[in-house]
Design goal:
Protein name: DUF2142 domain-containing protein
Radius of gyration: 24 Å
Mean pLDDT: 85
Number of strands: 4
Structural class: mainly alpha
Keywords: Membrane, Transmembrane, Transmembrane helix
């Protein structure tokens, strides 16, 4: 008798996706894209972090200037002239071609972006050339490239939803994960700017989703190879994506391996992961070490500092690292910092450590450790480099919260494991509604703080924004209205998608029983292994 080939089983404990969940997810994703678009027209042209250097590298690649060695590239005089024109009304700005004719050649300012791999800039150069942006006004070209970055990050809410849904089996927790990026205004601003973080955010989220699936079911060879490709491609975004290596490696080692010789199979799969990741993109960093003697050579060389009778202070470095990372992670716009940043970071970290690690069973605790491993990786990358630069130059630099955005999905997933252990079952709906409200308020609060950072309060500020933004005022008003409407709709749909507390088994699920393992630690019915 002929039988049909078996299909991979769905992840254990995962509830079907209903219409209400799909609508809420679509609304949240649309809301995130619109908020990022508002940031794209709110942030003055070339005012986002290192935006002039990113634009310089895109133009250089588009015009056939190649990819010089780190520290050798220079910002074109045309881009420097564009920075000067940023103070002019939008209608008075020049085209890129006009600037290149009036201000030819390179300036003395170093373009440090050649310390990164080229793919993001090649993508930007392809769009730049295909649309003929050299004949556009430079601020219109900037806005189009910001739109490209928004499209690259567009899947983030869906990927966060997918990771948490696979991890917990809970639709409400997954919807909260999709909405969580709205609570990080700096993320929305970076999404709406020209920055290679766009590729790092996207690829980091993909790695997280694949790693979560490794934690939930036996890892097949093709699944491991796919994860290796994702890690390699992520490594072609920027060096800080190397912090994803522990997440991928630990996920493969922690993946269920039923049968004989489980550790042998896990070891072989880890070796396959490493080989594929290197072939898919990590070779770039191996080459750097061979050619330059450093994994990531300095793109900007600063003069040495004479410490005199004193010396570097490691305690000062740690204090500044915590302050800078937390402030610029949540939102620091044009040196206007949000005062709750350190408190919010401390609360989130406390909840993850206490409820995700201390009060969890063995399986959940191990999964939390795996999901938090990119934080260890990022510190292992940042601290030695910052300390070396500090001892040589006396400057504490390179401490930006946006460096963590590529690890945002695993952090959200770890938070989901922790938050779901906090409220009792009869209060989970109320807790989740409160979190939805907090996310919405933080998104609006970020836009308000951003506006006040760049423009005066009152009618004069609105007039200045309308004069300098490179889109017509009616289009800007339409964008703001659409963002408000979609935001309200997203909140309503999210709340409607949450089950009642008495429907816990059909909605929220048990934090541990839905993860393929019981509270006692015994393995539940396994999923069909992948091949």
């Amino acid at each position: 008798m002929r039988t049909e080939p078996s299909r991979p089983a769905a992840l254990p404990g995962t509830t079907p996706i209903g219409r209400a969940e799909r609508l809420a997810l679509a609304a949240v994703t649309a809301g995130f894209l619109l908020v990022a678009t508002v940031w794209a027209v709110l942030t003055p042209a070339l005012a986002a972090p290192d935006e002039h250097a990113h634009l310089s590298s895109i133009i250089r690649v588009a015009e056939g200037g190649g990819w010089p060695d780190p520290g050798e590239a220079r910002v074109p005089n045309a881009v420097q002239a564009a920075r000067d024109e940023a103070a002019l009304p939008a209608a008075s700005r020049s085209t890129i071609a006009e600037l290149e004719v009036a201000h030819p050649g390179p300036s003395d300012l170093v373009d440090q972006m050649t310390q990164h791999p080229i793919p993001f800039y090649a993508i930007g150069a392809g769009v730049y050339g295909a649309l003929g942006m050299e004949d556009w006004r430079w601020d219109h070209a900037m806005l189009a490239l910001r739109g490209l970055c928004i499209l690259l990050v567009a899947p983030l809410p869906v990927l966060a939803w997918r990771a948490v849904r696979d991890l917990t089996g809970s639709a409400p927790a997954a919807l909260l994960a999709a909405a969580a990026p709205l609570a990080v205004p700096k993320l929305a601003q970076i999404t709406g700017s020209v920055n290679n973080d766009a590729v790092a955010i996207l690829t980091g989220a993909v790695v997280a989703v694949l790693a979560v699936r490794m934690l939930r079911r036996p890892a097949g060879w093709w699944a491991v190879a796919g994860l290796g490709v994702a890690v390699g491609v992520a490594g072609l975004s920027k060096g800080l994506a190397l912090a994803l290596i522990p997440l991928a490696g630990l996920a493969v080692l922690a993946s269920p391996a039923p049968g004989r010789w489980p550790w042998l199979r896990r070891t072989l799969r880890a070796l396959l992961l490493a080989a594929v990741a290197v072939a898919a993109g990590l070779f770039h960093w191996v080459r750097n070490y061979v050619v330059y003697g450093a994994v990531q050579p300095a793109g900007l060389v600063r003069p040495d500092y004479d410490w005199g009778s004193g010396g570097p202070d490691f305690g000062k470095l740690v204090d500044e690292l915590w302050r800078s990372l937390t402030a610029s992670f949540w939102g620091s716009f044009d040196h206007v910092e949000r005062p709750f940043a350190m408190w919010a970071s401390a609360v989130c970290l406390f909840v993850i450590l206490v409820f995700g690690l201390c009060y969890a069973d063995r399986t959940t605790r191990w999964r939390t450790v795996v999901l938090l491993s990119p934080l260890v990786g990022i510190l292992a990358i940042l601290l030695p480099g910052i300390w070396a630069d500090y001892t040589r130059t006396g400057l504490l630099a390179g401490m930006q919260g946006r460096y963590l955005f590529g690890m945002l999905v695993p952090l959200i997933a770890a938070s989901a494991l922790a938050w779901r252990r906090m409220p009792p079952p009869n209060r989970r709906r109320g807790t989740m509604i409160a979190l939805i409200a907090v996310f919405a308020v933080m998104a609006v609060d970020g836009l308000v703080h951003g506006y006040l950072a760049y423009y005066p309060f009152g009618p004069s500020g609105a007039q200045e924004w309308a004069t300098h933004v490179p889109v017509p005022w009616p289009a800007l008003a339409t964008l703001l209205g659409a963002t408000a409407l979609v935001g309200v709709a997203a909140v309503v749909l999210l709340v409607r998608a949450l089950p009642r507390d008495h429907d816990d088994e059909q909605g929220f699920g048990q934090p541990d029983a839905r993860m393929g393992r019981s509270e006692s630690g015994e393995q539940s019915a396994p999923a069909t292994p992948e091949t």
